Amino acid sequence: MANRFAGFRRISLRPLVSKSPRSVAGQVLVLQVALVVLLVACGVVALALQSKRDTTAEAVRRSIAVAQTFAHSPGVLAALEAPDPSKILQPLTEAGRKAAGVDFIVVMDTKGIRYTHPLPNRIGKRFVGTIEPSLAGKVYTESVHGPLGHEVQATVPIENPTGKVVGLVSAGLKVKNVTHQVWLQLPIILGAGAGALALATGGTALVGRRLRRQTHSLAPDEMTRMYDHHDAVLHSVREGVLIVSDDGRLLLANDEARRLLELPPDVEGRQVSELSNLDSETVALLSSGRAATDEVHFAGERLLAVNQRPMEREGGPRGTVVTLRDSTELQALTGTAEIARERLKLLYDAGLGIGTTLDVLRTADELARVPVPRFADFVTVDLSDAVLHGEEPAPTATDLRRTAVCGIRNDHPLYEEGRLIDFLPSTPQARGYGSGRAELVTDLSTATGWHAQDPERTKEIVDYGIHSLIAAPIQARGVVLGMANFWRSKEHEPFDEEELSLAEELVARAAVSIDNARRYTREHALAVTLQRSLLPRALPEQSAVDVGYRYLPAQSGVSGDWFDVVPLPGSRVALVVGDVVGHGLHAAATMGRLRTAVHNFSTLDLPPDELLSHLDDLVGRIDQDEAGTESAVGVVGATCLYAIYDPVTRRCVMARAGHLAPALVHPDGTVTFADVPAGPPLGLGGMPFQNAELELVEGAELVLYTDGLIEDRKRDLDVGMDLLRDALAGHPNRPPEESCQAVLDELLPDRPKDDVALLIARTRALPPDRIADWDVPLDPAAVAGMRDAVSRKLDEWGLSELGFSMELVLSELITNAIRYGSEPIQVRLIHDRTLICEVADGSSTSPHLRYAATMDEGGRGLFLVSQIAERWGTRYTPQGKVIWAEQAVPHAGEGPVLSLADAEALFPDEGAADSGAPM
């Protein structure tokens, strides 16, 4: 059969041998040489043009780079501000020009007057070129005829820290130097072209000679020998080859095909359909003559990849060529590769799905869910109980809490979530926790150390079908945080050593996220604890307002939101809410400083605008102090709203520094926002704050809040304020505490991104019968009449026991006002939680306490007031000042606060009516 095909091949090649191809080979040689010459010539021209363009572009890029580098060099701005910039800049530009390989670097002012130039006589003259784009802050390149000739130059601006252009820098090259670079490269290009031409011509000549040798020098026997070699190769390859004729006869089968298909020796010439040892699908394919690509067919226990192509060569026999490839081993390798791919996919999914939040419980749950069911049937995560609170874990596995459980079924007998487990030293979990290495148990039914933990529970687990375990320590920074347990049941084969390494890598990726969540939990708890310790734990007792409040720290980090209620003299109360910019411990600590400052300034009884001015100075000083430290984080700013409500007059005075306007809930249930002038945030300085005064009816609610309540990434500020209005409206009789909860439920998401402080104050008004007012003439004789009037009012209020002490206090305060003050003089008594007396006059001079000597005739009046009253002080008003004093209202059965004997004991040698304290 082989000889017959060899004869066929010789017949088919004889017409080619009989012809003389020498002239054809020569023509091919000439044609190829001409083509190579043409291509080389075109290549030389194209390379020359390309080289010139690239060289010019390189010159422009170098000019820009040099100019920008020099413009941003240290010391350039300082040199421009020097009295003689050229003296400083000329040596620098010359050194930079030589180092950068450019022809000039010119520094000029904004009018184009040069400070530097390679030609010293050009310094001080106007720059040749366009500077307007660079004055606008742009980089500008151009080609000009300058002092050095035809030049390519780039001009860039020099900007000060505020972005203002204070000078220009121009750098460039002479065009002839650029062109010179092109001519330097041309010999290289021509040489390379000539070399390519020589190689192409030589290669073409070799191909032509080989063509002549193949078509003229070979004898028929040599051709036969060549095809015999083909037959030898055909039968030695490790791929089966079949040739099937158009009528379904097997014409050729090489040795590999005979082996793979187990064909008999006399198979050639037989019909394919007669081969009984072939699979029916394989027979159908070979008989069909259709094209096939890598179709899989069985041949006994072998898995063959079959390719079939029709023979379409003109003049040749018609049929098909079939190749057979044994893919049994390849299939096994494919299975191994698929397992590796699935494991890589598991690790990839773990990297994406574990650690999406900074929550320890959530991260542990993600670790339990990712491997199920691809790697394990059940996964449990046990973390040290201290880790859940952000603390360092315990050294032994005696306080692990089951944090997460996930499996293919929910009726498993494993320990439930939340249980505190003390693992015995013999268990795989305890061994892995102590050594820091994963433990593999291929057969739980024979693991006696594991059975000792809980014999009944372990028996249930084995009976359930769970048979294999990997206990991997969750380890980060050399510290074991807990254990991840991977369990397999009858759904999977037991774990092996290769899967042990996969479990370790999977847990290692999750350990970093769990440790980050633990550390965040600790820092967040510290920040929350600090902030809560700085906020008021209980609001003080006062009669001006009914108060409800809420403070909610953000889930992502504590910030500086705060609020306070400060009682003021005269039954008044101060309501304050603020927000420090930023998050973390620094913001919380700054909030504490501001709250303390508000308390201190409140004792001075300052109006809201003055108090905010003092806070503004304080925040500015804090920023200045911390700006000089290397690790400090500046406050940047803070907002605050401060309001003072007087239940006697029902007037509320407030001012705000960059804070949101408060909401007013009227007794009819309508809601408006107070028109309070918006001052700048604290710390900016320079702008005064303005007060707004409102008259509130009794029962109105004043709602103070921080921006975390209404601002959100998903909604605008106006939408948040509308939601706040809707949450407050329509409930005039709802207590402030319930209103606070209703507002939070309506406006806040489950996990707020910012802190929220909310303060709702429902106003009260003192009854008119608890207030007494008198106008006092500027006459010392009026003091006696005022004592009698006050005594009668105290008898009316049932406070007769306070009459003597209050008469003494009023005598001193009224006497001071008459002697050192000015008209009008007014006296007011307020019966609230305490008895308050106020003496107002038109003078702004403040009294001060004196310690009189033994022989002094006066100076003991205010000292007497300070001894009798619980508190006393001075506050200033637009009309003058008010001196006030408070006395505690005694309970039933208590005696008078100060008797005549007590007064004589305090001042044996002095009358009580002489104050001696100048105003």
UniProtKB/TrEMBL annotation:
<keyword id="KW-0902">Two-component regulatory system</keyword>
<dbReference type="InterPro" id="IPR003594">
    <property type="entry name" value="HATPase_dom"/>
</dbReference>
<keyword id="KW-1003">Cell membrane</keyword>
<keyword id="KW-0812">Transmembrane</keyword>
<keyword id="KW-0067">ATP-binding</keyword>
<dbReference type="GO" id="GO:0016301">
    <property type="term" value="F:kinase activity"/>
</dbReference>
<keyword id="KW-0808">Transferase</keyword>
<keyword id="KW-0378">Hydrolase</keyword>
<keyword id="KW-0418">Kinase</keyword>
<feature type="domain" description="PPM-type phosphatase">
    <location>
        <begin position="545"/>
        <end position="763"/>
    </location>
</feature>
<protein>
    <submittedName>
        <fullName>Histidine kinase</fullName>
    </submittedName>
</protein>
<feature type="transmembrane region" description="Helical">
    <location>
        <begin position="24"/>
        <end position="49"/>
    </location>
</feature>
<dbReference type="InterPro" id="IPR013656">
    <property type="entry name" value="PAS_4"/>
</dbReference>
<dbReference type="InterPro" id="IPR001932">
    <property type="entry name" value="PPM-type_phosphatase-like_dom"/>
</dbReference>
<dbReference type="InterPro" id="IPR000014">
    <property type="entry name" value="PAS"/>
</dbReference>
<dbReference type="InterPro" id="IPR033463">
    <property type="entry name" value="sCache_3"/>
</dbReference>
<keyword id="KW-1133">Transmembrane helix</keyword>
<dbReference type="InterPro" id="IPR029151">
    <property type="entry name" value="Sensor-like_sf"/>
</dbReference>
<dbReference type="GO" id="GO:0005524">
    <property type="term" value="F:ATP binding"/>
</dbReference>
<dbReference type="InterPro" id="IPR029016">
    <property type="entry name" value="GAF-like_dom_sf"/>
</dbReference>
<dbReference type="InterPro" id="IPR035965">
    <property type="entry name" value="PAS-like_dom_sf"/>
</dbReference>
<dbReference type="Pfam" id="PF08448">
    <property type="entry name" value="PAS_4"/>
</dbReference>
<keyword id="KW-0597">Phosphoprotein</keyword>
<feature type="domain" description="GAF">
    <location>
        <begin position="349"/>
        <end position="524"/>
    </location>
</feature>
<dbReference type="InterPro" id="IPR036890">
    <property type="entry name" value="HATPase_C_sf"/>
</dbReference>
<dbReference type="Pfam" id="PF01590">
    <property type="entry name" value="GAF"/>
</dbReference>
<dbReference type="GO" id="GO:0000160">
    <property type="term" value="P:phosphorelay signal transduction system"/>
</dbReference>
<dbReference type="Pfam" id="PF17203">
    <property type="entry name" value="sCache_3_2"/>
</dbReference>
<dbReference type="GO" id="GO:0005886">
    <property type="term" value="C:plasma membrane"/>
</dbReference>
<dbReference type="Pfam" id="PF13581">
    <property type="entry name" value="HATPase_c_2"/>
</dbReference>
<dbReference type="GO" id="GO:0016791">
    <property type="term" value="F:phosphatase activity"/>
</dbReference>
<dbReference type="InterPro" id="IPR052016">
    <property type="entry name" value="Bact_Sigma-Reg"/>
</dbReference>
<keyword id="KW-0472">Membrane</keyword>
<keyword id="KW-0547">Nucleotide-binding</keyword>
<dbReference type="InterPro" id="IPR003018">
    <property type="entry name" value="GAF"/>
</dbReference>
<dbReference type="Pfam" id="PF07228">
    <property type="entry name" value="SpoIIE"/>
</dbReference>
<dbReference type="InterPro" id="IPR036457">
    <property type="entry name" value="PPM-type-like_dom_sf"/>
</dbReference>
<feature type="transmembrane region" description="Helical">
    <location>
        <begin position="182"/>
        <end position="207"/>
    </location>
</feature>
